Amino acid sequence: MSQELSMPAIKKTAWIDGHRLRLRQADVEDASFIFNLRQHPLRNQHMSATSPRPEDQIQWLERYALDNSQAYFVIEAKENPGHPPRAGGSQLLGTVRLYDARALSFCWGSWMLLPDAPPFTAIESALIVYRYALELGFRSAHFEVQQGNLAVCRFHENFGAVRVGEDAGQIQYTLDHERILESLHRYRRFLPAGIKRAPFIH
Ligand SMILES: CC(C)(COP(=O)(O)OP(=O)(O)OC[C@H]1O[C@@H](n2cnc3c(N)ncnc32)[C@H](O)[C@@H]1OP(=O)(O)O)[C@@H](O)C(=O)NCCC(=O)NCCS
């Protein structure tokens, strides 16, 4: 008897709450925040260049809304002691995106934070991404980091990521299931109650 394995898919959700952060689905209204972040000279040295035209960012987000193969989030502070909330809304800290599902492995990236994001933001946002991916049914991860982006290489290697190749200035990494579980456990004080989320969108 053959048993058909159903492969996980990346799904969108309106929001995912962690400990001190919320990942909220990016929409067209976030275009100017994302545009400014992608153009930020302290943050974009190791990112693929995006268009210098703000209207292209709006179009990118409109296309994203129709693309069910990825989930793109803005990272917000649930509460941010010492930082006043932004006028009319929560404090936006950065972005992160899940994309390129390959069987049981997912890719994540477009990971950027404002330079003054609180220090826990990087690790908590990474842990939220891994928890969400496990809920979707993924078991491992793959991603690329530009050569020379040493701090980010170190960050991923601390999580157990292994270099599996280099191509066109990019280092390719994988992170297996055991290392994901180990890191979620090792860094559990950053995400003590796991995640809560809105229903999957599709
Ligand atoms: C990638 C990015 C989101 C990471 O965020 P970051 O804040 O720089 O991440 P850091 O590695 O400095 O970690 C932040 C803090 O968490 C701490 N931390 C990181 N990993 C940790 C770990 N495994 N255990 C405990 N603490 C950890 C760090 O020590 C640091 O604290 P400090 O500021 O008190 O030293 C950010 O650097 C960024 O936006 N970079 C530009 C875009 C980019 O290159 N993106 C990656 C593309 S692949």
What does this structure look like?
- β5 (105-113), α3 (120-136) and β6 form a beta-alpha-beta unit.
- α1 (31-38) crosses α2 (54-65).
- By secondary structure, the chain is of the alpha+beta class.
- The protein has a single domain (15-194), classed as Aminopeptidase (3-Layer(aba) Sandwich), CATH 3.40.630.
- The protein contains five helices and nine strands.
- Strands 7-8-6-5-4-3-2-1-9 form a nine-stranded mixed β-sheet, with helices on both faces.
- The mean pLDDT is 93.
- Coenzyme A binds at residues 43, 46-47, 109, 111-113, 119, 122-123, 145, 149, 151-152, 155, 158, 187.
- Coenzyme A (COA) binds at residues 43, 46-47, 109, 111-113, 119, 122-123, 145, 149, 151-152, 155, 158, 187.
- It holds the Pfam family Acetyltransf_3.
- Residues 20-161 form the N-acetyltransferase domain.
- This is RimJ/RimL family protein N-acetyltransferase.
- InterPro entries: Acyl_CoA_acyltransferase, GNAT_dom.
